[in-house]
DNA sequence: AAAACATATTGACAATTTTCGATTTAACGC
DNA sequence: GCGTTAAATCGAAAATTGTCAATATGTTTT
């Protein structure tokens, strides 16, 4: 049985870099070709490729190849999964009364 | 007018480190003293302090000082804010028909 | 088949983040 | 006040991540 901390982290890493946030922001307006994204960012092509890989692995973004080009868009399923994971990670199962917790 | 990418990233950084995920997981069972968290992690005290700072700054975790001790718990408001931010960042505003996007 | 173009991969370096040891601050008990 | 304990801060080392230049892969066009 494997620890899945890394898998969980992967999802939220999508939102932890300024350029990735800019990319996601652009994708909110609809599907975009990699070349269009590149035009609107101050990074090189290999760096964009690196970020797109991280975004796709997070599940938040989906890629679609069409001939020479690759089109990216926000994945509704991925976003939903992220919401569910966020809930799973942050739901408090027990609430003890204040002061119940003892220390030392 | 300031760029808010850093602020947005701050929220999700809470979930991007294995030790922070372990801490959040422990807090799901209820409020915990820092010393208790420390006992259950393979990191030193200054490192825990560093992670707790990041978690508190994300809004996901809240700290409460009581004498010598500091108690941490998951912040319902912070979690809700994270959900809202996630929605804000990922909602697609327009959906053009497939193939509408032109390249080059 | 060759040239041109879009994207991915590789390897090296820069920037950031995590970690620790040492020290500091603050609260408690004697 | 003095010693003890809990947590924060500081400074430096280690690990990870972001970036770019060069190259490779795959597709289209001529």
Helix residue percentage of chain A: 40-55%
Computed Rg of chain A: 18 Å
Distance between the termini of chain A: 33 Å
The best one-word shape of chain A is elongated
CATH topology (level 3) name of chain A: Arc Repressor Mutant, subunit A
> What is the total domain count of chain A?
1
* Oligomer description: homodimer
Strand content of chain A: 5-15%
Number of helices of chain A: 5
Average the pLDDT over all residues of chain A and give the rounded result: 93
In CATH, the architecture of chain A is Orthogonal Bundle
Low-pLDDT parts of chain A are none
Q: What is the CATH superfamily of chain A? A: Winged helix-like DNA-binding domain superfamily/Winged helix DNA-binding domain
Topology, element by element:
The structure is a homodimer of 104-residue chains.
Chain A: H1 5-13, H2 18-27, E1 32-33, H3 34-39, H4 45-58, E2 61-66, E3 69-74, H5 76-90
Antiparallel strand pairs in A: 1-3, 2-3
Helix pairs in contact in A: 1-4
Chain A binds a DNA duplex (30 and 30 nucleotides) through residues 17, 19, 33-35, 43-53, 65, 67-70, 103-104.
Care to describe what's here?
Two copies of one chain form a homodimer. The first copy, chain A, is of the alpha+beta class. Chain A has helices at residues 5-13, 18-27, 34-39, 45-58, 76-90, and strands spanning 32-33, 61-66, 69-74. Chain A has a three-stranded antiparallel β-sheet. Chain A is elongated and about 60 Å long. The mean pLDDT of chain A is 93. Chains A and B meet through helix 1, helix 2, strand 1, strand 3 and helix 5 of A and helix 1, helix 2, strand 1, strand 3 and helix 5 of B.
